[in-house]
Fold:
Amino acid sequence: MKQTHLLRAALCASVTFGAGCDGDDGEGGGQVISNASLIKGQDGVASLALANNATVCSADATVCTPDNLSGRVFAAGAMLQSPQGGGGYNMTFLANSEGIIQDPSQESHPEGVLAFNLLNPVKFSGLISIPSEDNMPENPQINRVESYFDYIDATLTISGSGSTDLDGKHTIRTVFRKTATVDDVTGNELRVGEKLIKKDGETTFRWCDTSSCTHTTRPDSPLVSSTIVSAAAEAGQREGNGNYALYSIDFDAAFQVTYEQISDPSRLWTLTFNVTRALTFQNKISTYKTEAELVAGFELGYGSNSGGGVSNENKITSTLTIGEAGSAN
Structure:
């Protein structure tokens, strides 16, 4: 486990990482150092145990917790700032090239390539950008992680809905990139805000409109998340990559760090995402009788710290710890 790859901002899961140094100078008084990371289920178990031990989305639920989160990510950054605010340093990691690490706004890299699945953790090797010691913020702390997801797939289990179409396990995909190509929607291109669904055992996602979720090609008016569509519309008005609805994951409490900690390649970092109650529905699940009704009412908890971003009170949060020297070995 090595360095700061928050991998996927999304779920009651742990990411551990340690920093490895190779001294290349980055931009803005920074340096790019090597790293690797691992994301895994909460407490290291093979499934995501909820804090309330209730992974099933019951018939009376309007809020519940996913069985799993997976998807694809372009890049992520840990925000290093002074408590007084202003300035700061976005420690970019979890990207496919040093060019993205140094400038994640590059549009020459059209979409993400790093897949993640919290129930089947994979170790990622890569890079992270950190400030030079002289450019550390005063009393530095890390407040949040900001991620560019192509899409996030939320797997959930429904019980007692009264509908044979809805009871059982489903995966609902939410798209955060303005356009993204994938292999599991018959080769078609995804568009920002779209919500697609597949049942357990299916290999291909289906689009939905207000009447059905039978569409293997995009219908004229697919169901979308208006929250994500609005956030993506703001992307061109802020710094960063304009292709994405930025996903912010706040820490439960700001994490104080030192340059010695973030630059020490032997320290183990552990980031724990809390996705309890991260899935919301407009109405009780028992009121939905079709997949289209379920998907129309579904929202993945979402937060954005960019100007004008919409914040969901049930969004994912996280905590961070950095181990003692030698703990990554």
About this structure: The chain has four helices and 19 strands.
